[in-house]
């Protein structure tokens, strides 16, 4: 709590013809004349201050705090508060309350609720004013963190709800196929037909197992609320991915161009980065053109403070006008490739968005595809 004297401030406001003007006029004046604010702020006299203020501001003496106080009033973070106080005086108001910012002696910005009130009997010259500040920095941070957590949880719940519909539809299809095949097996009296149906049943069950494995991966991604970040060297992550895919690269006689310099690092989740690279590069190999050497080029650049990883190939391309809307959908496929499951790009997009990034795609059929990942 502070006890202050604004009588000299009032005298200067009267001298300059400011008293009686509207709030809008006063605020507009000081907005156009920011240097005048310091002249007024320097006239504020501090009569007394309690010990709590020393704890709050972390100053060692009253003299140090008194010297710092006028600078606080005209600091950029407090300009609106100071202008509003002067406007309140000019319009005859005797109390004022607002949220304000201040720096303590250690240079840390704090947020407080500021209450300014004229003691009854001193309304003429404003020479007896009580100012109280309640530090709400920690409370505000807690609220912001809680709000972010709730936003994440709401987003996660929405994804999981969407996911439950997909799971229900997907598993129901498999269950229907299994039911039909078992009915046919039980009703058939021909052993050759039975054996043929059992082979089909085995294939359906195998596909179901593959779908369940994919769904498990999706659950893992959708369940992550907070993802651990660390510094990841991009070139090393790409080299590791190339090593994992070495057999496929050899079979395809593909060329992987890792154009990332050794010193490039991003602050991300290592497992997510490796998964993203694995999905994108393996897709480039999977959807390469027949009788054409697959070439996958990986580059990095920065634009407008964004870090961009680009994966480009010369594959069969994607008809974005026809299939762009379902490109990142779960179990959405649009090729006749038997290895296509419609899971990889869904997971890739979720992993990128979980870290605050985004992914874009540009593609021309029979020319190739370019994915760009924008890291936050």
Your description of this structure?
The protein has 376 residues and is α+β, with helices and mostly antiparallel strands. The chain has three domains: 2-135, Beta-Lactamase; 144-226; 228-376, Histidine kinase-like ATPase, C-terminal domain (Heat Shock Protein 90). Helix content is 51%, strand content 21%. The strands form three sheets. It has a five-stranded antiparallel sheet with strand order 2-1-5-4-3, sandwiched between helices. A five-stranded mixed sheet has the order 7-9-10-12-11, with helices on one face. A two-stranded antiparallel ribbon has the order 6-8. Helix 9 crosses helix 11 (270-286) and helix 11 runs antiparallel to helix 13 (344-354). The two termini are 43 Å apart. The mean pLDDT is 82.
Topology:
Layout: E1 2-5, H1 7-15, H2 23-32, H3 34-41, E2 45-49, H4 51-57, H5 62-74, H6 79-90, E3 95-103, E4 109-118, E5 129-135, H7 137-187, H8 191-223, E6 230-233, H9 234-244, H10 246-252, E7 255-258, E8 265-268, H11 270-286, E9 295-303, E10 306-313, H12 320-323, H13 344-354, E11 358-364, E12 368-375
Parallel strand pairs: 7-9
Antiparallel strand pairs: 1-2, 1-5, 3-4, 4-5, 6-8, 9-10, 10-12, 11-12
Helix pairs in contact: 2-3, 2-6, 7-8, 8-13, 9-11, 11-13
In short:
The protein is of the alpha+beta class. The protein is 51% helix and 21% strand.
Keywords:
376 residues, alpha+beta, Beta-Lactamase, Heat Shock Protein 90, 3 domains, 5-stranded antiparallel sheet, 5-stranded mixed sheet, 13 helices, 12 strands, elongated
């Amino acid at each position: 709590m502070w006890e202050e004297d604004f009588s000299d401030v009032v005298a200067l406001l009267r001298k300059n013809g400011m008293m009686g003007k509207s709030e809008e006029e006063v605020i507009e004046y000081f907005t156009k004349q920011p240097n005048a604010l310091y002249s007024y702020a320097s006239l504020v006299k501090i009569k007394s201050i309690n010990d709590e203020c020393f704890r709050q501001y972390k100053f060692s003496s009253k003299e140090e705090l008194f010297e710092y106080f006028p600078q606080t009033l005209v600091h950029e973070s407090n300009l609106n508060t100071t202008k509003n106080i002067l406007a309140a005086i000019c319009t005859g108001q005797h109390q004022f309350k607002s949220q304000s910012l201040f720096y303590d002696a250690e240079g840390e910005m704090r947020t407080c609720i500021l209450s300014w009130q004229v003691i009854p009997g001193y309304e003429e010259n404003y020479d007896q004013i009580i100012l109280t500040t309640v530090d709400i920095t920690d409370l505000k941070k807690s609220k912001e963190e809680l709000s972010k957590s709730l936003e994440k949880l709401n987003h996660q719940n929405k994804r999981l709800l969407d996911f439950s519909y997909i799971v229900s539809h997907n598993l129901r299809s498999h269950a229907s196929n299994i039911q039909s095949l078992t009915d046919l097996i039980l009703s058939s009296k021909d052993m050759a037909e039975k054996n043929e149906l059992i082979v089909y049943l085995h294939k359906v069950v195998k596909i179901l197992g593959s779908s369940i494995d994919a769904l498990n991966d999706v659950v893992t991604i959708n369940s992550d609320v907070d993802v651990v970040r660390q510094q990841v060297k991009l070139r090393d992550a790409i080299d590791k991915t190339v090593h994992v895919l070495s057999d496929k690269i050899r079979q395809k006689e593909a060329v992987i161009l890792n154009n990332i310099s050794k010193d490039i690092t991003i602050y991300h989740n290592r497992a997510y980065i490796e998964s993203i690279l694995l999905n994108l590069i393996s897709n480039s190999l999977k959807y390469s053109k027949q009788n054409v050497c697959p070439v996958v080029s990986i580059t990095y650049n920065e634009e407008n403070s964004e870090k961009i990883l680009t994966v480009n190939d010369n594959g069969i391309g994607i008809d974005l006008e026809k299939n762009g809307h379902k490109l990142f959908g779960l179990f959405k496929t649009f090729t006749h490739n038997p290895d296509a499951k419609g899971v990889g790009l869904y997971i890739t997009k979720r992993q990128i968005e979980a870290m605050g990034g985004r992914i874009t795609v540009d593609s021309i059929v029979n020319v190739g595809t370019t994915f760009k990942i924008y890291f936050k």
